[in-house]
Amino acid sequence: MGFFGLEPNQRYLGIWYYADPKTIVWVANRDNPVSSSSSFLTIENDGNLVVKDKSRTYFTTGLPSASGSASWTLKLEDTGNLILQDGSGKQMWSSFSFPTDTFLPGMYMEKAMKLTSWKTQNDPGSGSYVFQKDTVFGYNNYTIFYGKRLHWKSGFGLESNINPTKMPIAAIHLLSRSNTTKTLNNSRLVMGSSGEIQFYYWDLTLGKWFLNWSEPKDYCGKYSACGQNSYCDMSKKNEYNSFCNCVPGFDLIPDVVTSEKVCKRTAPICIGNDTNFLKMEIVKIDVTFETFMESKSELECKEKCLGLDCCQAYSYSAVGNEELARVGVPGGKQGCWIWYSGSQLVDLQVSDGAGGRILSIRNPISKGAYFFLYF
Questions:
Q1: Residues in a beta bridge with 107
Q2: Residue 9 falls within a domain, yes or no?
Q3: Shortest CA distance to 193 belongs to which of 143, 129, 149?
Q4: Are 35 and 9 spatial neighbours (Cβ–Cβ below 8 Å)?
Q5: Contact 356, 233 (CB under 8 A)
Q6: Can you tell me the distance from the alpha carbon of 42 to that of 269, in angstroms, rounded to the nearest whole number?
Q7: Residue 373 half-sphere exposure, CB side, CA atoms within 13 Å?
Q8: CATH code (residue 7)
Q9: Nearest to 308 by CA among 291, 329, 295, 296
Q10: Which of 137, 184, 289, 325 has minimal CB crowding within 10 Å?
């Protein structure tokens, strides 16, 4: 731990690895660089840990004033956790509770915890990308926001095992502190300045970091890269030189408000018995605000969808997920996800040569008997 500088006249208090001083894992004054050479770290009379010089304070732990703080001490643990403790050894503050862009073994990803990227590789200031737990599902599901816009969303087993956004089990164990093996002790998760969440491990033999996994790794990995009612396919571009295509029964039509071309239905549904379902194979789709219903067969799933107000689409899975079912996450049991009424199909992706789930999209019979998007 100490002061470091990446640009002239800009110094920061940070924590790094003894074996790799260039990898900074925590920065105290990330948005308030020190310009003078007379700055120092101290514990104030009120108990707060501060970075300051003669003219101003650049960082403070912001604790309420405490009596008896003259006996407080600061300890840097081998885990990388900086701990402020009172005279009895009670922890009053720790850097693990206030991470910057890096998640280390021994931390626990609370619902309110966030990893905020650096501005650039050479500027540790708070960047534009934020990694955190999904605020809806929560359980082993994570998101990246770019400002207020959802940039990426992890899969958590509902779509298929080949869902490209699904996090590796080692990264999930690291975030949930459910595994303390030596392998995880030599790993870290970083919210990169260019928008990727990155999982690294340290090779003890070679003595350097290796990137094990990152997302989003391509255009289709971004959340809803193609917008509503369209799918992304990195294996080929269409006639518009785009990876995006409308789902069966939808065509590109200029929006009446923005004039931007969006995928909309070209024929009405939910009228009389003129109903058919066109099918396509997908590797991911967002189900956050959709309805899940237990079903023993695809036929039962289809009937339940048609029993709702203007059924739009459904996706049936004969195989549940015991872990998700045990914690009460929707979709953990055998059954189907249903889109109805004003629901939109969002964040769809297909993949060359990969098997996935079947999505059945409601269309008039005039659109055909079936449409399987296989590779």
A1: 105
A2: yes
A3: 129
A4: yes
A5: no
A6: 69
A7: 25
A8: 2.90.10
A9: 291
A10: 289
CB-based contacts of 269, cutoff 8 Å, min separation 6: 275, 310, 312, 362, 363, 364
52: number of CA atoms within 13 Å, CB side? 12
Do 168 and 229 meet the contact criterion of CB atoms below 8 Å apart? no
pLDDT in tens, 134-185: 887 666 789 999 999 999 998 754 444 556 667 888 898 899 876 555 557 8
Other CB atoms within 10 A of residue 287 CB: 20
Q: How far is it, in rounded angstroms, from Cα 213 to Cα 199? A: 5
pTM above 0.85, yes or no: yes
Q: Are residues 63 and 148 in the same domain?
A: no
Contact partners, residue 285, CB within 8 Å, separation at least 6: 159, 315, 345, 346, 347, 348, 349, 357, 359
* CA angle (291, 173, 334) in 5-degree steps: 30
Query: What are the residues whose beta carbons fall under 8 Å from the beta carbon of 151, sequence distance 6 or more?
Result: 129, 143, 144, 145, 195, 216, 222, 223
Our count of domains for the chain comes to: 2
Q: Nearest CA to 339 among 374, 367, 304, 373?
A: 304
Alpha-carbon span 50 to 309, nearest angstrom: 59
Domain-ending residue, one of 70, 97, 124: 97
- The helix (H) or strand (E) run that includes residue 280 is strand 276-282
Distance between start and end Cα atoms, the chain: 53
Buried b (16+ CB within 10 A) or exposed e, 80-108: bbbbbbeeeeeebbbbbeebbbbbbbbbe
Bridge partners, 192 (sequence order): none
